[in-house]
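Ticket #4471: structure output looks truncated?

Reporter: J.K.
Steps to reproduce: submitted the chain below (201 residues) through the standard prediction queue, then opened the result file.
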Amino acid sequence: MKLLWSIGSYFALCALGCLLQTLPTIMQAAPVAAKSQQQQPQEAQRDGQHDFDFNLGTWHTHIKRLEHPLTGSNSWVEMQGTVVVRKVWDGRAQLEEIEADAPSGHFEGLTLFLYNPAARQWSQIFSKSDDGTLSQPAIGEFKNGRGEFYDQEPYNDRTILVRIVWSDITANSHRFEQSFSDDGGKTWEPNFVATLTRARP
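Returned output as attached by the reporter:
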């Protein structure tokens, strides 16, 4: 028993000796590592407050709307109309008014865009004049000239995902597309597509 205790004590003393020999090196390296971390510049977060500036003004719009989304239908309604967008809160928000006509009747829509400076993201909330209710806010941001926004909402007694994409953006044109997914985002079906061209003054 004494022999086992002696062997254990020997190994413990050896381990302690090794630790004491390397301790000065560890103590010197720690401040250097901490200082190195402090010197690394944090990646600057991009301010997206002006990402929707392209949308300001008056536009002619051609709209295609899928009549029965998520049913396998390929029946589309086409509309021609006007979109007017003005800035609110010095550009930190926008109000968009849509009017369009189709063979089935007149369409009026209203979109509110809000910028969250803390999150550096935009949200957009939509309402139609025929029901006067507000949609769930779709939230997203722009990267490389393309904006993607998402929300989750009920549709035909199911909860689905909604994706909105702003693309093909130039000074005088852009494209808007809304899609639904009922399989958790594995597949997307476009159901509202608008191409917009700037109206001449």
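Triage note (M.O.): checked the attachment and the full token line is present. Residues 1-41 form one domain.
Status: closed, working as intended.
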